[in-house]
């Protein structure tokens, strides 16, 4: 749960507050702070373009726009940001939900399997 929550916080547009949010929530819920912090680091610079692109693509299904999404810096201006901001915000929340559930389930299954193997080894 800690890792999944960290991934969720790492993807939503809470720039500058991600670490504070995930650690605060982990403390409040008495979850693993290190795993929450690890999950929130999904938004490291190499992944940011992928996260933004996926969020915009997902958001464009919910909020269609006449103006296509351009991925080059020549077409970025305040008007383009206004048009695509809602797409990005909605898309990032949906991406965060999907990614946190997926990563949470994957690591849960991995840890459950490792726990079973450790029990068999001890016995």
| C-alpha Rg (nearest Å) | 18 Å
Span of the ends, CA to CA? 28 Å
Shape: elongated
Give the topology string: H per helix, E per strand.
HHHHH
Largest sheet: none
Number of strands: 0
The helix/strand class is mainly alpha
Average pLDDT figure: 88
Strand percentage, roughly?
under 5%
Could you list the spans in which at least 5 consecutive residues all have pLDDT below 50?
none
Query: Into which percent range does the helicity of residues fall?
Result: over 70%
Describe the model.
This protein has 123 residues and is mainly alpha-helical. The protein has one domain. The protein has 5 helices and no strands.
Helix-strand blueprint:
Elements lengths: L1 H10 L6 H12 L3 H8 L7 H15 L15 H45 L1
Summarize the structure.
The chain has 123 residues and is an all-alpha fold. Helix content is 73%, strand content 0%.
Key descriptive features of the protein:
single chain; mainly alpha; 0% strand
